[in-house]
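Newbie here. two chains, one complex. Structure please?
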Amino acid sequence: MELNPALLSELERILGPKGVVATQEGRMAYECDMLTFYKGAPDVVVLPETTEQVVELVRFCRREHVALVPRGSGTGLIGGAMAPVGGVMVSLTRMNRILELDFPNRCATVQPGLINLWLSQATREHGYYFAPDPSSQMVSSIGGNASTNAGGPHCLKYGITVNHVLGLEVVTGSGEILAVGGKTHDHPGYDLTGALVGGEGTLGLLTAITVRLLHVPAGVKTLLASFSAIDDASEAVSAIVAAGIVPAALEMIDETFVRAINEGVGAGYPKGAGAVLLIELDGPDAEIEAQARRIVQICRDHAALEIRVAQDEAERALLWKGRKEAAGVVGRMSPSWILQDAVVPRSRLPEIMREVQAIGARHRLVIANVFHAGDGNLHPMILYNDLEPGEVERAMAASDELLRACLVMGGSVTGEHGVGLDKASSMPLQFAAADLNFMARFRRVFDPDGIMNPGKLLPSHPACGEGFRPRVPRVPAGTWV
Amino acid sequence: MTVAVSAPAALGDALAAIVGGGHLTAAPSQLAAAAVDGVIPRWLAWPGSMDDVSRLITVASAEGLAVAPRGSGSALDLGAPPARLDLVLDLSRLTDILDYVPADMVATVQAGVTLEALSRELGKHGQMLALDPYGGATRTVGGVLATNASGSRRFRYGTGRDLLLGARFVQADGTVTWGGSKVVKSVTGYDIPKLLTGSLGTLGIVVEATLRLHPVQPASGSWLFSFTSREAAGALVASVLASSLEPDRLAWLNAAALGRAGQDPAPAAVAVSVASVAEAVTSQGALLDSMASRMGAHVSTLDEGFWTRMGGALTAATVVKIASEIRRLPFWVAEIERATARHGLSVTVVGEAGNGIFRAAAEGSVSPESWAREIIAPLRETLAAEGGSLVVERAPLGLKRAADVWGPVPETAFAVMKRLKAEFDPRGTLNPGRFVGGL
């Protein structure tokens, strides 16, 4: 886009002078999300404060054939909130209010820029919370969560973001305000709410979101079981699921991470453990007591070295601190890493973990793992040194093999991070041409001119991305997984 | 776009060649039995595979035929009368469980599998599909998903929207398409299964469904809390919702429903079930008991069979479903009881109290015009203020003609739905006229 003075002044008219960032240094702050592998600064950044401004903005961009890229907190991991072909980036951080808390109807309506954790903080004293808890929840926005259909450790029991979105106000790519769903259930007609969640900004801009609130469970029990071998831990996960127990969370931390977390965060995980399971149960006290006893037995049967049960909230927080800040300690292990997000059917967990180790060995790289074991959602981190010739290529080859191994087992190329620019070209691995064609037509219904977040989610622009790769891929420390 | 129109006999032969002669009929008695809202099709086919469905739809699309898919046929009352109907596609032969790995808690099944048959298979491994539409054991997975049917368990487990992970479907031009995934967690591309759930087959016909399963809990208990007023029953629902109790069902019954379910009469009652480990069932039951007793409830214990009897209570020629704000459900039950009583009707009400949804089955005689103008229209008008809806799920043809069975859909949302239908079924092959706004 050629950002001529006339266009800029029109944007300033719509958003006010404080709502437009057009300076070089200002724009560079928005050139990537947390996957800094892909860079593409927008021509201009706008910060709307009202739905009306968003409508005017979309209509203006549609008229001028200018690309629009929505952005929440920018904590995504898929090259979603960046502008590979330039255009206008719409930062929704100023639309961050809670519009309504409605406890009798167990829901809340919020603006897209509201930070995920703030909603639970605002509702907890009333006995409620917002269940989706991506590890980034202290900084990521609910609009971003809904756009990427974010997961989190507790979606094993409670489902991903879409299961908690009741209604949306969306400004579509054609510039209409579309209000779908709401406080009441089962609206007649197509479930547009469900189909719009996870749209990654390719269908429209979310301007208000009605979400389900859950009552805070009566009790919480957090256990930590360590094993000498990751195989035993994987088998224990399968056995827990097979026993008919759906824990609130069931997380795996491998040897490499246990070491790094102990050094970096001081979580006090058992030294020398080959794998650690972090298991959380919530619900009525009698239920979680009985389930905890059963889980302890299962872990013992699978040769657990040690089993700890958090005795109070402080201990529980410490056990979780290591998990939540895991990605941040990666910098201690390696200068660079590639993070994968892929899924296998949970029964294949032991098998895929052996495969991950084999792939690492084959490429002479360490692959560290901390992930949502309960639902088979892997986050292998391939560690490499970008100063060593050939390591980047080996790391990328390993990453690709991992993805394919998951698909061979019947899995998925992304469990919770999304597609974005990063995996748009991987979509044909999982979907046939007819499937992708259906999705492309679905997209066009909402965005007839192709101005919404072009190049993302579908492999429609195969060249996109290639030109924006820095020489060295890099994911910063402090990333949330 | 041109539509080839073949001679009827040749067309019948072409369709029969796809499924085999024994699986296509044009016999008047069978066609009459397959009529949808009185509209008699020209053929009734029983495809035996995904490929059959695809080829039938390909021919139908090319020949400009209108197709109505059906499962067990129990929910054909849902929807407006068809604008056109040539071919009824009965999916009841597609009964294979294609893939079921208990440790994954996921199953892929063909659309014609009944909930009963699936439940038998899953039960062997202590698992279930947590969809329990009323009177639903003989209903098929495909039909339940297409109509977004749900029952009391939705309070804990959600609806088809939450349980359908992936779907293989046949588009209106016959193209076999896959959407979603076969794992419990995936955000790869648009969530096409959400679009298909509840779409009444108007965008595509789901032939295979990949479903999220749940473990059957080791113990369960059910209780009935009967009250002398709706307000008191509503107060119990509100208290349960504001507590950390975790029931899996939270149902509302009016006096008529209690009678039909074989319980002692009372103006309103709340039936609750809890499923968990035995200790937690006992402790939650005790909490519920003391909470309800304080509010003046008469408490009785229920057997598991109650839930089937409750679903069976909704048999009447006319059934409407109302969705309101959760906290307003008692108010709307009162409204419909009053509105129908004025016309000499009596209603049986069964509801999902934790979701703001209830159904009212009406007995008695009133003209379709009075139903439409004096009962449905005013209720819809006030429901709209809180974003609620009233859908006529079952009614004699007269009422279906007098009242829009789906009710209004907000203009901008409907415009998008119309564009979706135009994009994915431009010739109106799939169930034309039966969905919202005549889609």
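Moderator note: Residues 278-294 of chain B form the longest helix (17 residues). Chain B touches chain A through 87 residues (CB under 8 Å). Thread marked as resolved.
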